[in-house]
Design brief:
heterodimer; A: 485 residues; mainly alpha; two-stranded antiparallel sheet; 20 helices; 75% helix; B: 508 residues
Chain lengths: 485, 508
Amino acid sequence: MTLADLSFSTIWPLAFLTVWACALLLVDLLIPKERKGITALLAALGLAFTLGFTLAQIGMQQTGFQEMVVADGFSTFVNALLLISGLLGVALAYGYVKRMGLERGEYYTLLLFSVTGMMLMAQAADLIVVFLALELLSIPLYVLAAFARPKVESEEAGIKYFLLGAFSTGFIVYGTALVFGATGSTNLVNIVGSASSANANLLLLAIGSALILVGLGFKVAVVPFHMWTPDVYQGAPSAVTAFMSSGAKIAGFAALLRVFSTAFPSIASDMTGIFWGLAALTMILGNVIAISQTNIKRLLAYSSIAHAGYILMAFVPYGNPDPHIRNTSIAAGLFYLVSYAITNFGAWGVVIALEKSEGRGLEIGDYAGLARKHPALAAAMTVFMLSLIGLPPTLGLIGKIYLFRAVIDGGFYGLAVIGVLTSLVSAYYYLRVVVIMYMRDGEPETEHESFLDLTTILTAVATVVISLVPQFLFAWASNAVLKLF
Amino acid sequence: MNFFLQPLTLLTFFPLVGILILFFLPSDRKDALRWTALITSLLTFALSLWVLKMFNPSDPNLQLVAQYNWITVAGWNIQYYLGVDGLSILLLLLTTFLTPISILSTWTAIEERVKDFMIFFLLLELGMNGVFLAQDLFLFYIFWEFTLVPMYFIIGIWGGPRRIYAAIKFFLYTMAGSILMLLAILWLGIYGGTFSVPDLIAQHNIPANIQWWLFLAFAAAFAIKVPMWPLHSWLPDAHVEAPTAGSVILAGVMLKLGTYGFLRFNLGLFPEATVRAAPWIALLATIGIIYGAAVSYAQADVKKLVAYSSVSHLGFVMLGLFALNSQGVQGAILQMINHGLSTGALFLLVGMIYEQTHTRELKVYGGLWKVTPVFGTIMLIVALSSMGLPGLNGFVGEFTILLGAFGSLAINNAWFAAISALGVIMAAVYILYMFQKMFLGPQGEIVEEVKQHGHGLRDLNWREIAIMVPILILIFWIGLYPKPFFALMAPAVDQLVANISNVTVAMH
C-alpha cells in the first residue's frame, strides 16, 4: 500500500503540523531558558505554514485512509479557523507566560498538539477517528489547564477538566460501541447506509447517538453538561482559557456538525426536540447565571456557555427535510463559530492585558477608569462586548442574524424568541463591563506587550470590518457545507 | 468613489469626517474639538439643504436613491439602499438642524471628556441620518440599533446623578422592542426574498393573519421608542438624567424614530393589520395624551415636566398617524417636527438655567422675568408654541391631527378626537403652571442663592441667543405659513393613504 492509495494529501497539513510539533519538542531543548520566545515564534511559524497548506486544500473533496478521514470544504473551513485560533493563542500567550513565570517550551508544543487534534476532529469520517482526535486535542489541554502549578486553582482546573473530560470520553466510546452494534460500522457514511436498511437496530442507534451527543456536549459546554466550565476557565491560565474556549468549542461543534449531519440524518428529525431543549436551556441558564458574576473570567465562562447555546440553535432546523434549510443552518453555525472565536479572543486579550501576576485585576471592578487611562483598550473591549451582545456594527450581530434566519426559516419561532430574549438578558451583564470601564473612576494597571496589543487591535478591527463586508465569509461558509450530504 | 459621491451617502456618512479629525486632535484642546464638531455638523446641515434643493416635492416616490447590492451570497439579498421621500425629508432636516444646535449648547456645559462626547454625538447623528434614509430593512435595523450605543454613552457618562441606571434602562427597554422587530425583519426577508422596503410593499402578498404578528413585532420596537403609554417608563429617567444636548436629541429626534418607524414600515408594509389596529392605537394614544398631560402637571422637577409632556405630545402624533387619512398623517408629520422644535427648545432653555442654578426644582424658582427678561420672553414663546397657541407651530400640527382624527374612517369613533382635544387644554394648564412658577410671582429663593455664590443670575448670552433664534424663526414660520412644509410631504402622504384606503375598501 502506498501513500497515494491512502490519499495522504487529505491529511497533509495535519501531518506537517504533527511533525513540526514533534521537531519543536526537540529543538526546544536547544533553546536557552531565558529565550523561550523563540519557541513561540517557531510554533507560530508552523501554524502559519499549515494555514497556507490548508488554504491550498480549498476545493478538495476526497476521503483518505480507507474513508477514515475526509478533506472537504467543511474541514478546510474549520481547519483554517482552528489554525487562526492557534496563532491567536500563541500571540496571547507570548508575553503572558513570561510575565506569569510560566514560560516553558512545552507550552507551545502542547498547544500545537492540541491544534492537530482539533484539525483531525474536523476531518474525521469515522467515529474511531473522532475518539482519537478528541483525546489528542484534550490531553494537551488538561496539561495546559494545570500549567500554572503549583497554584492550587490551576491544578484544580487541570484535574477537574481531566476527570470530567475522561468521563465524557467514556460516553463517546460507549455511544460509538452502541452505534457499531446497531449498524455494524463506525464509518459515518456506512452508518447512514445501514441505518436506512431494514436490519439496523434503530433504538440502539438512537441511544448511541444520544450518548455521543452527551460526550461532545461536555466538550462544548452545553447545559446540563457545563458544570466544569466556570471553574476550569477561571483556574486555568488566561491565555490557555482563551485558546481552550475558542479552539475546543470550534472542534467540538465541528465534530457534532459532522457526525450529526452525515451519520444520523435518519434520526435528525427525532433529535430536533432534544436539540431545541438543549439550546434553549443553555442560552437561558448561561445568560442568567452570568448576571451575578463579578469575576471577568467567570463572566466570560458563562458567556461561553450561553454562546454554545446559540450555536446549538443551528442543529434545530437541521431536522427539516428541505436541504436548503439544512445548508443554511450549518453554514450559519460555522459563521457563528468564526464570529464567536474572533470576538472571544479579543475579549480574552483585554483580560490578559489587565491581569496581574498575583491574580489581581480579574474582578470586573478592576476595569474602572479604563476608558480614561487606556481609551484604545476600553474601546476594543466595548467592541467585543457589543459583539457578544449582538449589536451593530459588529460581527456578533451578523452571526446572530444568520443563525436566527436559519431558525426562522425552519419555522422554530419559539426558539428564535428565546434566543433574542436571552440576548437581551446578556446585554445587561456585558454592558456592566462597559459601564465600569467608562462610567466609574479608577486607576487600572495594564500590561503592554506588542503581540498582545496587536491581537487585541486586529480582532477588534476584524470584528467591525468583517461585519460590514461579510460576503466573503458568508460565501465560504455556505460553500463549505454544500457537499456535506 | 462614486459610492461616496451619492448625495445621501455623503450626507449620512459625512459626520465620519469630523470624527476622523477629532481622533487626531489632542484631548485637552477643548475649543478645537468643539469647533471641529460644530463645523462638521453645520456642513452636514448644509448637505441636507443641498438634498432639499434637489428634492422634487411633487414626486411621491423615493428620490436621490443610492442602491447597491451589499450581501447577495448564500441566499441573502441585502441591499445598501438609501432614499428620501416626502415622509422622511422633514425629519432628516430636523436631525441635521438640531445637531449643530445641540453641539453649540454644550459649549460650556460639557467640560469633561469633550473629545469622547463629540465623537459619540457625531456617531449619533450618523446613525439617525441612516435610520431616516435606509430603505432596506436590514440596513435600517443596523442604523436603528446603532443609535442606541452613542446615546447610551452620552447618558451614562455625562448625565445626572442616576445616569447609569437611566442609561441601562434606556438601552434594555429599547433593545427589548427592537429584537422582536429583528425576528419580523428576518421573516419578511425570507418570505419576500428581499429586504428592500419598496419591493416588499409592491409585492403586497403577506397573509392577513401573519401581518398581524409582524405588525405587533414592529410595533413593539416603535411603541417603546415613541414611547406610547404604557411603555413610556424609560423616558422620564433617560430625559432627566441625560445632559441637555442628549435630552434635546432624545426628545427632538430619537422619539421620532419610533413614529417614523410606524409611518414608514407599519403603515406601508402591513396595511390590513394597520387598519385593524387603528382603533386600538388611537385608544392608547388618547390615554397617553391625557396621562402625559396629567402627570406633567404633577411634577416638581421642571425637566421631568417637559419629559412627561413628550408622552402627551407624541400621543397626538400617533393619533394622527392612525387616523389613516391625509390630514391626520400630514398633521402627524408636522407635529413630529413641531415637537422636535418646541420640546427641544424647552430642554435647551431648562439646560441654560440649570447651568447657572444647578437645580430644577420648580419651587425654588419664581419672578425670573424681572431678572432675565430675554430668557423669559423666549421661554414664553416656546411655551406657547408647545401648548398650541394659534399663530405658532404647535397649533397647526395639533389642529390638523384633530381634524384628521374626527373624520377618520379607520378609527371610526369621534370620542377619541374629542377626548384628545382636552389634552390641548391640559397642555395649557401644565405649561402655564410651569411658566408662572418660574417667571412670575415673588422672586424665588434661587435668585438670592446664586447671588451669594457670585455674580447672580445673568440673562442669555449671545451664544445662547444664537442657539434659540433659528428655532424661534421656525416656530413662527410654521405657525404663520405652514404651506411649504405641507407641500413637501403631501404627495407622498397621499400615495400612502391611498394604498391604505384601497385596503379599507376591500376589507369592508
